[in-house]
């Protein structure tokens, strides 16, 4: 870990301009991802701006009938919120499928969206990795890639966004609210928030330098059956090989997003439209153009089978209701 | 004390203290954070510096140059130990050099250690070392190397005529099985504090406070690599947070700590950072095994062949995966052999139940496949092929062998199906889960090793046991106290046990599940001597005394045991040594493993529902700690069957998933229900304790039982461990 300086910001805009004003500065929220990466010098910030204590840890109702989740709301608090559990069950299910209780207590909504890939070559500074060290090559592409991505990837990088929470947010059409160093705010649909790896894989998302996430908003509730299914080698405390977040209506229509397969939570409206025709049809549309390796090719059939499990569960829940 | 003939009746047979399910006597120290583990021994030496090790960034080649300037000038840094300033250092126990020289033999080989005032300073400075390497090509792909790997010297076992018997066998099964490299991944990483001093005669003397399973081996090894005499080294390791074989041998932490402390003239402490555990230390070798089983129509085996191949660094050893195949089943014809490929991956070496753990994963899957070919009960197949003698040396009986009882009791307790045959594979569904059952035999050798101890009867009547035996989480403290208490007729609370110090008498140490039986036998021997001294002291005839309830009794007379030490402590030292009794009788431990699993019909995820092990391992010294050993081993077996897999990058030559997020071991949710039964038995040929090892038995066979249950659930046979969902996903039964 390199030496760094540290400050607590006094307001969201001040935090943004503090980061923009110091070369190599970064925000720190829960620190559960950033500090791990600093210890092994994958992240080497010169200055940390602490964004805890800015009043961004509230969940409130929006005029449109949805929820605004402050960027510093912990994963534990978000998953436990009564309104979330009632109206956005897929989000609670996704969060509690991730990490461990201790980590979720520290992890924040903004930090979770920005957690970096778990590609093992990214984590090992002796290995080539375009994401960590641009133009050094991709160690994983012809190496060990079982965990890695098949959608939105390129020969530059095949990393996945590893998280769970954002997969549910993708299915809910959440919007990421930010403030820039100049005080301007913007609202970024989650579909456009994370990047894919056609070029510049060192850049995970569309945030500009110093741009601070202030909140994530959820549109008004969708109704339907909310499900999250996370598939992994051990029963708990592991990142997803594949995960499916879905909201299924009684008539069999609905929407789904898939985690563990792509540069970002993967969803397409064309695939959603196929849900009525079953898992096979919908999964095929979603994974069209998949770029697989010998190690991760199984993710294509696994998406279909996991979706089938989710649809079967939705049917049985719907029938029970 | 020489042990060469079956034990007669002795004080342990009373079983007043031995055989009782006592809690660990060291438990309160551990649960209150007071047990001194190596890295936390702040009190043993003043002015400890923090070390941080730099591992090689390449797998094979040479260091052309190393620039230490920035590191040496970094804040807080007191010195840097460089591999270029030393000759290659390794002991007879190591294959790869631990430190020294420009040559790189494997990834994350230790090449430097920075010493600084704080851990953070040392770590930051280590990242400033610039190394210029000359990379060389290496051999990293076992699959590619295995076909041309030659047989290792002296490993062939040939008995009868396998080829002829195989050719004429009416029923055959032959298949290839693979097991991956596995990491010990014990909770406590390797760690050492080293401090030098001058002895009275002016010589240098180093003490290492470390985490090590085999104190004498390490004292010898450290003296050897440092080029000093053994009496210039003290090794102290009273508590270990696990080892599983990773801490049998001297490792880089101890070497660089000693070198660094010498270089800066100040104590140094260092711990291997977690990623170094995988590529810097040892691992269990991956294996490729081929098994051929020929049988009569009634299931009697007539031909057994088992050949296993693994890779290792030049000069490294085989993984003895055929060990059990020599002894487990009767057959007049058998052939086993081990092949060894030279490779440039990190050193493969012993991990819990070396040989038998991966060997049983293959053999016991093959036996199930044979049972299916025979359309026969898999329990019965194993029972009818039981042998009470060493099959390749029929004049040599097993000391005790109750495999059949383990299997039969296990089947009854588990509720094995009527008639014994497996339910139709892939035929049972419970909601979205396919369910299945599986079984396997368990087998692991029992090894006899000499072991010594000292016992002190203190004025006031307390008894202190001293031996360099280690407690790697197994319960050594407790069973040694039980042994001494039983021998001296004292309550457990009157005994204090001190371990892990090389100044104490040399014990068997912890490894190969030999620790419990041999180290307690060593304490037994010392206590026999103390009993004689105590009897003598109070004027009783030693041949006719009884030690009970804190008294020495003879005829109608009794005196308090403490009277024997009234005018000064009594000290007795002795050890157990074995003649050829292990040659005359084959000594092994046995189990029957039974498992129920569920496999998700959609996703292929396998989850264990319940596990049962019925074990035969001589006298059980403490049913509670023995059970802990067996359920821990069953858990490790579940990891081996379902998830543990060190992924090799065959281009760059390293284990890629080198942390505990990438190398998955079971979590609580993976292990819902475990049951362990011990047969009530003694083995009079194992030692005066009549006990045997249990620590590795629980691992040997359980992986195959899980694999067999998965097959029974899915109807898809996966012969490449671990059985992850991708290996059977697309062959699962259609979802109705
Ligand atoms: C062992 C382990 C297991 C895990 N398992 C899972 C899992 O199964 N599923 C899962 O989804 N996650 C998992 N995680 C990841 C965990 O969810 C993330 O570490 C956590 O959500 C990050 O949140 P944080 O607040 O700690 O972020 P930090 O570490 O503080 O920050 C992460 C990044 O976000 C930036 N940042 C933080 N807040 C803001 C903001 N408001 N605006 C702009 N930038 C910001 C920081 O600069 C940094 O670059 C696991 C983590 C660990 C350590
Ligand atoms: S997949 Fe991406 S993160 Fe992984 S090594 Fe390649 S470039 Fe780096």
TrEMBL record, chain A:
Organism phylogeny? Bacteria, Pseudomonadati, Pseudomonadota, Alphaproteobacteria, Sphingomonadales
The entry lists its GO molecular-function terms as: FAD binding; oxidoreductase activity
This one is known as Xanthine dehydrogenase
Domain FAD-binding PCMH-type: from-to ranges: 1-223
Species of the source: Croceicoccus mobilis
From the UniProt annotation, give the residues forming the signal peptide: none
Q: Does the keyword Electron transport apply?
A: no
Q: Per UniProt, which keywords does this protein have?
A: FAD, Flavoprotein
SUPFAM superfamilies, alphabetized: CO dehydrogenase flavoprotein C-terminal domain-like (SSF55447), FAD-binding/transporter-associated domain-like (SSF56176)
From TrEMBL, chain B:
A molecular function annotated in GO for this UniProt entry is: iron ion binding
Please, which domain of life does this record's source organism belong to?
A: Bacteria
Q: Which Pfam families match?
A: Ald_Xan_dh_C, MoCoBD_1, MoCoBD_2
Query: What InterPro entries does its record include?
Result: Ald_Oxase/Xan_DH_a/b (IPR000674), Ald_Oxase/Xan_DH_a/b_sf (IPR036856), Ald_Oxase/xanthine_DH-like (IPR016208), AldOxase/xan_DH_MoCoBD1 (IPR008274), AldOxase/xan_DH_MoCoBD2 (IPR046867), AldOxase/xan_DH_Mopterin-bd_sf (IPR037165), PaoC-like (IPR049648)
SUPFAM superfamilies the UniProt entry points to = CO dehydrogenase molybdoprotein N-domain-like (SSF54665), Molybdenum cofactor-binding domain (SSF56003)
Start and end residues of each Aldehyde oxidase/xanthine dehydrogenase a/b hammerhead domain: 32-137
Q: Which SMART domains match?
A: Ald_Xan_dh_C (SM01008)
Q: What is this protein called?
A: Oxidoreductase
